[in-house]
Amino acid sequence: MPFKQLDIRNAEGQRLAARLELPLDEAPAAWALFAHCFTCGKDIKAAYHISKALAARGIAVLRFDFTGLGESEGEFAATTFSSNVDDLVAAAGYLERHHQAPALLIGHSLGGAAVLQAAARIHSARAVAVIGAPAEPTHLARSLGSARERIQRQGEAEVELAGKTVRLRKEFLEDLETHRMEATIRGLHRPLLILHAPQDEVVGIDNAGQIFQAARHPKSFISLDAADHLLSRNADARYAGAVIAAWAERYLDLATERREAGAPADNPVTVRTGRNGYVTDIRVNRHSLTADEPVAAGGQDRGPSPYDLLIAALGACTAMTLRMYADRKQIPLEAVVVRLRHEKIHAADCRDCDTREGRIDRIERVIELQGDLDAKTRQRMREIADKCPVHRTLQGEIVVHTRLREEGS
């Protein structure tokens, strides 16, 4: 998916490094704001894969490094939970001024608690999703163990969290104590999606139960089975993103907006492959697809190969053509099943081909017609199958005109 690197100014005038994930060659149907986990960053796997999944559904996602983390300015030790909430409000304001105010808020771990708190100040938010979020920010203070006492005694101390050493001050702990989330969650007045891993050893699953009990309807819970707190496995992060995207469509009215958008675009198909691997994003009008190569060919098998998509088009066209013919002739056709296989064969092995040298493409198509049809009708429908437009295209003369798009055009 295309993206933009951005700079956002927080309430103190410090630069927050941000990344805006955009839908493929299409104006976003909605905008979302993502808050990463404590001491993490905008480029953590969970943030990356969730943003990609939402962008594939037409939702633009802004994610950023909180003050003092990643590429953002400021001293992390001088930040608090309240300043994180302020950063979220600043990022929402940036979206409102330069694009469109965020309709969806997403937060991971302590970032989940932050978006719940920030929602009251981000009036454009129509839905909120939290992943592995604590029911209270003070959960973090309790997890510090003996370091908490050192911070209280010395005023500040270095602690190790998620493999990273950071400096926390007494003011940070005191600020956590000022936030009571139960009333905040009860007064959210937005649809809430809670995702949590039962095996989460950082923020226990009981936190999800407390959030769910405090929240008013509509509220939903998704168990992220076998996932860890950081969603470090790509498959877990992609699953969470797909669930959030599907859930958000209902509350952001994305499906309605697409239906009302009318006719397909003048340039309905856009394809994009990034720097690494063969995973390819495809946008067909308002529909998203993913293509890839098999693992044996160096891909990740995240989607069908280009040839798979080609013969799938032939299969779909065949089935639709037969359905149209049956409806027009009032033939009692119950269903059509088309099975296809593509392979490269030696031209010399093809008795009916004009080409005699080299290799040619061979597509085997097996059609199953379900219904009470006599032999004559079945044979006629076999002939109709060869008249489907994609079949004719594949067997006809094809001209592909290619040009390079000039930079900036």
Record keyword descriptors for this entry.
GMP Synthetase, Chain A, domain 3; Rossmann fold; alpha/beta; 3-stranded antiparallel β-sheet; single chain; 24% strand; 13 helices; 8-stranded mixed β-sheet; 409 residues
Polypeptide structure, described:
- Helix content is 35%, strand content 24%.
- It is of the alpha/beta class and 409 residues long.
- The protein folds into 3 domains: 3-259, Rossmann fold (3-Layer(aba) Sandwich), CATH 3.40.50.1820; 263-297, no CATH class; 306-395, K homology (KH) domain (GMP Synthetase, Chain A, domain 3, 2-Layer Sandwich).
- An 8-stranded mixed β-sheet has the order 1-2-4-3-5-6-9-10, with helices on both faces. Strands 11-12-13 form a 3-stranded antiparallel β-sheet, with no helix packed on it. It has a two-stranded antiparallel sheet with strand order 7-8.
- Residues 259-263 have low confidence and may be disordered.
CATH architecture of the largest domain: 3-Layer(aba) Sandwich
Q: How many helical stretches?
A: 13
CATH superfamily of the largest domain: Alpha/Beta hydrolase fold, catalytic domain
The gross shape turns out to be: elongated
Would you tell me which CATH topology of the largest domain applies? Rossmann fold
